[in-house]
Amino acid sequence: MEGGRTNRMAPLDLSESRFYRYILKAFLWAVFTYFAALFIAIYKIWFVLLCVFIMSIPIAISGIYSSTVGRIRNMEMFVSQGWIYRLFSGRWLRILFWVLWAPVFSFVMLVQFHTYDGLEWLGLLLVIPAYYIVFRIVKKSARKELRDYLITDWSTKIARRVTPAIMIMLNIVIISQFGDIPQYESLTEAIDSQKAITSEVRGTALVIAISDYLAFYNGAKDFALGSLAALDNKAALIIYAIGGFVLFYNACVILSSFMVPAVEYRRILNPLSNTPDPPPIPRLRIGVATGILTVLTLFIYIPLFATLEYWVRDHFEIVVGPIKELEMIGDRLVKAGTVEKIKEIEIETLQKAQASVAELEQRADRAFDQMERNVEPFLDWYYSLPAEYARIGAMLFSDLEIYIEKQLTHFLTQGKAFNQLEESIWRTVSKNKAIEREHKEKVKELIEKNQVIADTNNVKVVNRISANEAIEGILIKNKINFGTRLTAAGAGAGVATTAITAMVISKSMGKAALKQAAKVMAKVVSTRVVGPLAGGAAGAAAGATIGSFVPIIGNAAGAVIGGVIGGLATGATIDKMILMVEERLNREEFRGALIKSINQARQEFKSQIHGK
Predict the structure, then answer these.
(1) What Rg value do the Cα atoms of the chain yield, rounded?
(2) Where would a tag sit more exposed on the chain, N or C end, judged by fewer CB atoms within 10 A?
């Protein structure tokens, strides 16, 4: 009896040290959250993905632990382990819920924190001591009535439900007493004001999109706080209360992970048991869990996040409604229609040029024929596993369009397809120098004549070109006369070939090929969502088992290594099989798209050298 009482009351003697550990963890979390929220609207997708992943870990672990203890509590009603027991003892649905909940709301929280001012950050920091106080009060009462294994979970559950309500009321008091609350006549006006603020957010498309949607909540919050005395804005108050509760609830979920003793987290991977002291986790279970986490992170979380970013980037638009429609040439505002007049001058210039194009056309046919022969090597590379992972890496750390364009350039220009055009190009250039000089003088005169002085804040630029593009020629530089500028700049042999090849691939080939590549990538990613999960656990378990029997490392660390290897092998094998199926189904279609693009580029090039 005395021994049991000693064990039960011992944690009270450690409350001070636990408090310091809790404060240290919470402080580190607050510092990370502040800087992550500060830079999330600046850096690229890889930074957002990393911050969201780190932010998700305590939310997921805390939620899964609480769900596990809840399952244990429910199992105590059974006297035998029949089919009803097996039905209700499953944890996978609850684990899946927290795996999805954690990254989604971590991302929303970080974007929301980016808009916080000093008082709002103070209100968020106050949740740290508030949660601890509520937790200690609840735990003190729970010790008298609950079983040992339920005390921590019960205390965290109650604390993360009560604390958000307290923090909402405390925040209202702080902001109303010390904050500069804007006054709005309507909810619409408040939302529009927040949209104007979020329009300055830059970075990834996902951050911009979520910022735009959060403007509705922030507008409702400001409107509610600005008219608390009237108490006639119930809808805004409800929106503010719900949003504030969700935000503080997730913050409390994170803080609750700091209050759970490390030994208690063993329950997550161990079989369901109400023993007060959970036994160590078997190495095989550690390996399996590590393998599953590897598959989820590398083969599902990262590709899906990257794909979603590119989907939003293609569909998200910010519409601005300025007052006056003008065009911009370089840094000069000019009357609408000036660019069109410049095009007319270019057409006249091209009509004056009397260059022979017969030889150019023959050389062009041979060059494009060589490009068609280079399609098969490109497809062989494209449907390889290293290329698949390289494209996912390009989605996260650079630019997919640029990466695909570089690969197309590398493969389709093999054999120096356009080098034979050089001689014909230079002969044509020599005949057009005088005509080009006349063209530049006319364009400069037109720009000077149509220049407009206006406030850029009240202007909608409907057309924009650089000064160099206008003077050198919008149409001319994309036709045979671009060789004149290369010669004038002192360019040596081979530069014209590079320019023509870049134009053909980036303008004609790049768009068609990238569209097809994105289509294939979308199919692969969507198929991957189910594939690795179906085989990931089995492969990870096998890898973990092998790792646990290897000498020297045959322990928990070996199980982790085995789990990682199993997860990687499973994911890579499934990716390879999916890629083989994709090649079987789509290679001919992809090849046809590339050949079609080459033929279209061939016709466009011929039209250009003819001056059409």
Answers:
(1) 32
(2) N
